[in-house]
Write a structure and sequence with these properties.
Blueprint (H helix, E strand, L loop, with lengths): L16 H10 L22 E6 L12 H4 L32 E3 L5 E2 L12 E2 L10 H13 L6 E7 L4 H8 L5 H4 L2 E7 L9 H6 L3 H4 L18 H8 L7 E8 L20 E3 L7 H4 L1 H10 L5 H12 L3
Parallel strand pairs: 1-2, 1-5, 5-6, 6-7, 7-8
Antiparallel strand pairs: 3-4
């Protein structure tokens, strides 16, 4: 059974308590296939290719979401923050074989720490907010466009987004403000157990809350995630426009995921690849001793799934 490699996310990082309850009632347990033993995958990346990483809730940016990181002055960070202890290893196995110079990391706050006095978009991404709940999708799409504009043609991009981060590249690609010229610079968008079609339960309920409650802050995650709802204008745009004919989309989603359900992590009929993975579950005895960790394992197990790793590498390797 696959094992999650990123730090365990706290209970508050779930989309909402209602989503968790509904997921438990609506999804039967399953087990992950494959193992973490494989030959390294040679990802296509050279001076004209970049891979943009978009992390999920409570794992955003290149740095672990610790208070010491959130409290930094981004223009004058402590030098030791660039050490291995603070690096976010969420995509470590998914991108086995990718060279560091290939990788750019998206910031939900559009802030990048200055190393040796220099700040560069895509390098040392840093966030105060820890979830796309805090930002409207148009704002996030603007940030993504600005990141790509720093790397002019002929550079092209493959964008890999995890969990709630999935709304960022898909909405960017679908919205009217994005030009076909900008879309042509993206070789592929790969969403890993992410919000694509829109959450059809908890987030829609969040939209029904009184405005005063809907704008209330939930820890560092931001407001209730109304913008991720199935009926929101953002996810509706993703489902109903023809952007997927202009950019190659792959969704890597796991049946049995209790955090991001299989059905709203995909866009059926509109993907170049959509492997049917199975989420990992805790052994039965651990459900009572570590219930929250067991829930999170169903979501995070895709991060070390061999089939997921291969699907990503194969998508990136496809010809333009």
């Amino acid at each position: 059974m696959s094992t999650k490699v990123s730090a365990r996310r706290p209970w508050a990082s779930l989309v909402s308590g209602a989503l968790t309850v509904a997921a438990i009632l609506g999804t039967a347990p399953s087990y992950a296939q494959g193992s973490t033993a494989w030959d390294p995958v040679g990802l296509v990346c050279d001076q004209n290719r970049r891979i943009i990483l978009i992390h999920g809730t409570d794992s955003t940016g290149e740095f672990a979401t610790l208070e010491i990181v959130r409290g930094l002055d981004p223009s004058r960070p402590a030098p030791d923050i660039f050490g291995a202890d603070y690096l976010n290893s969420e995509f470590k196995y998914l991108l086995d074989g990718a060279v560091d110079t290939c990788l750019l990391t998206f910031s939900y706050d559009d802030i990048y720490l200055a190393e040796n006095g220099i700040s560069k978009r895509g390098i040392n991404a840093w966030n105060v907010s820890t979830s796309p709940w805090e930002r409207e999708p148009d704002e996030l799409a603007d940030y993504l466009q600005q990141l790509m504009e720093v790397y002019p043609p002929p550079i092209t991009f493959d964008i890999i987004a995890y969990s709630a981060g999935g709304i960022v590249p898909t909405y960017w690609a679908a919205r009217e403000q994005t030009t076909d010229a900008a879309r042509r610079r993206v070789h592929s968008i790969i969403v890993i157990d992410g919000i694509v079609s829109g959450v059809d339960f908890a987030a829609d309920l969040a939209c029904l809350l009184p405005k005063s409650l809907r704008n209330a802050q939930i820890s560092t995650y931001g407001r209730f995630p109304c913008q991720l709802g199935h009926g929101s204008p953002f996810t509706r745009t993703i489902r109903t426009t023809d952007w997927w004919t202009k950019i190659r989309l792959a969704t890597v989603r796991a049946k049995g995921d209790l955090i991001v359900w299989h059905r709203f992590a995909g866009l059926p009929g509109k993907t170049a690849a959509d492997p049917a993975l199975l989420a990992a579950y805790c052994p039965p005895g651990e459900w009572f001793s570590g219930f929250v960790d067991c829930l999170l394992l169903t979501h995070g197990s895709v991060l070390t799934n061999v089939e997921a790793i291969e699907a990503i590498a194969e998508t990136i390797a496809l010809p333009p």
